[in-house]
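quick one: zinc ion bound model?
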Amino acid sequence: MRLYNTYTNKIEELKPIKEGVVTIYYCGPTVYNYIHIGNARPIIFFDTLKKYLEHKNYKVIMASNFTDLNEKILAQAKKEGLTEMEVANKYINAYLEDVKRFNADDSYIKPRVTETIPEIIEFVDELVKNGSAYKTETGDVYFRVSSLPTYGALSNRKIDELIQGARVEVRDEKESGYDFALWKSFNEGIVYDSPWGKGRPGWHTECCVMINNIFKGMIDIHGGGADLIFPHHENEIAQAECAYHHRIANHWVHNARVNFGKEKMSKSLGNVVWCKDLTCDPLAYRLLVLSFPYRNIIPYTDELQAQFVDQYERIKSAYNKLFLYLDVNNLFDSKVQTEKSVELMKRFDEANDEDMNTPNGLSVIYDIVKLINQSLRGEVNNELVVSIFNVFDEMLKVYGLNYKKERMDEETRNLYTSWLDAKKVKDFEKADKIREELKNRGFAL
Ligand SMILES: [Zn+2]
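yep, here:
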């Protein structure tokens, strides 16, 4: 498949380092608050990418971190009367509930800063020793941006311009304005001993060290929101180049943000939609997200969401109708393929192979919805509808729009047969009663 690579500004073939395996890491949250629907976009996007790669028979190893040590967590702990760890755990649990809310696989690897401290200290120490970083009198350690001539390659910035532009804000203890903290002297809350005194690691360092811990070298895809390109990902690359002599990942993949209408979603504007407060089916939001190319900003509004609630109902209604037909007639057979189903799956794969074009992938799903509604009218071609069900089911799983559906038990099947009989002899009163009962059992006819 081909994916846009922020590092080269090109759509490029994804060539896994190890054949048959794709390794992915994307930056996770700082856990001091609940997440809003914009924060859920990378969860949804990278989960979909992972599921698509698995559909293509790759083994995918994915990791995403929790920044569980941060001044914002300390401030929140004071506000809530909790310890920093209690705050971190509270919002990690809330985050994982949101992961499940959007039907994302929660079995990925979840490194935490507080569990990576010795390795981070060792890493910073290495950078100090090889001259890429320096300690200040106050006990901070900074990365020396001027030590890496290629700094700025990811975000297309030139190091000279950066340093020139930053001259005004240079703080005394820093050699240059763009030098960034690897270790910060700190005396409050959770602190760790280091060769530079008590303190905490800087934010840009953890991801490099975690990736190295987990994957022992370069990975295939490093992802995150586009707001992380500079400085966070640029700084990750800089450190890795100086410590590991590689740029961490071959492919740098970034999703765009979610706006509220035309405005940025922010607490100060009061237009934030929290995931936990979504009133619609969360999968209707997942459908909304996948209806936009991942590199385009989504202009979320309640009206837009309402449209996708309807669209998702259409998808579910076709799926339920076909499921019921196959169930009643005992036709489930995952091996059945037809020319039509092969063609549909090919179109779906082609859409995703070209930089995860999920809007095009969804257009195949909408074609299937139409096809189901046509095919179940009048004389039904059983082989065709079974084959369509198989590809439809697979596509919904890849996009995480699938949901659990139980087959009828014997008693329900008998009820269903008597409903058909009642309709046949035009006993509508009886038919309606049975229909109500079937609906209560989860079979809306
Ligand atoms: Zn990161």
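Residues 27, 207, 232, 236 surround zinc ion (CB under 6 Å).
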